[in-house]
Design a protein that fits this description.
Number of strands: 0
Biased composition (Low complexity): 39-54
Order of helices and strands: HHHHHHHHHH
Helix content: over 70%
Transmembrane segments: 83-103, 124-142, 154-173, 185-218
Region (Disordered): 34-77
Number of domains: 1
Radius of gyration: 24 Å
Keywords: Membrane, Transmembrane, Transmembrane helix
Shape: globular
Distance between the termini: 59 Å
Length: 232
């Protein structure tokens, strides 16, 4: 009979392979994005820019020459409104959950503030992770319909596949305490970060920079506190 510990890495490897394939699909299979025409122009403004002959309907954002009917989408629809905001919240929640890894060693710190921060992050780590998964499921469900076949769809699916595997290993680890399961959970979470940076861009970069900055400040404070009394 095959040992369970030997089977544990295979779901993680499969999730990583599927995620990387989707990431490759974003480079070679993605359809070009549809660019909306500027809205809110009047007929006189359009004519003043050397585009005489267009109707006022065209200048208000309807498809013009060379643009397929139905390819125009209003700005608020293009941006996704609240669904895009859910993605930003998911990035922040994911940063809180991932931030626990930088404070795991601070639980034994002499600095009381760092010890409390570590305990707090450990207590919210699981809840923040599930919240991230829920927010991304709603966010991704919307864009899976509105951006079908576009690059963001592939990179988003790549990140979501990994996140599902991360959640699965995290849930299973609470039931079966095996070191291999915890390592797979951590490795998948680490792999998720660069794919999230590719997909989310600015918000993910800001969250990653803030997380690293907090880790660095915590390490410096811990190092300073750990110095013996009278040390130079």
């Amino acid at each position: 009979m095959v040992k369970t510990s030997r089977l544990l890495p295979w779901p993680a490897l499969l999730a990583a392979a599927v995620s990387l394939l989707l990431l490759g699909g974003s480079l070679f299979l993605a359809a070009p994005k549809h660019r909306p025409l500027p809205s809110g122009r009047t007929g006189s403004q359009t004519q003043g820019q050397g585009t005489q002959g267009r109707s006022s309907k065209d200048s208000l954002g309807a498809p013009g020459e060379g643009q397929a009917p139905g390819s125009f989408r209003p700005k608020h629809e293009e941006e996704g409104g609240p669904f895009k905001l859910l993605g930003t919240f998911a990035v922040a929640s994911g940063a809180v959950s991932f931030g626990w890894y930088g404070f795991r060693r601070r639980l034994g710190s002499r600095q009381l503030l760092l010890k409390k921060a570590g305990r707090l992050l450990h207590s919210v780590h699981t809840y923040a992770g599930w919240l991230t998964l829920a927010l991304i499921a709603v966010h991704g469900g919307y864009y899976l319909v509105t951006k079908l076949g576009e690059r963001d769809m592939y990179t988003g699916l790549a990140a979501f596949v990994l996140l599902l595997a991360i959640a699965g290993y995290g849930y299973a680890y609470r039931k079966v305490r095996k070191l291999a399961m915890r390592r797979a959970h951590f490795v998948l979470a680490t792999l998720w970060v660069p794919i999230l940076l590719i997909h989310a861009g600015g918000s993910a970069i800001a969250a990653a920079a803030a997380t690293v900055a907090v880790w660095g400040a915590a390490a410096l404070l811990d190092k300073k506190t750990a110095k013996p009394t009278g040390a130079v």
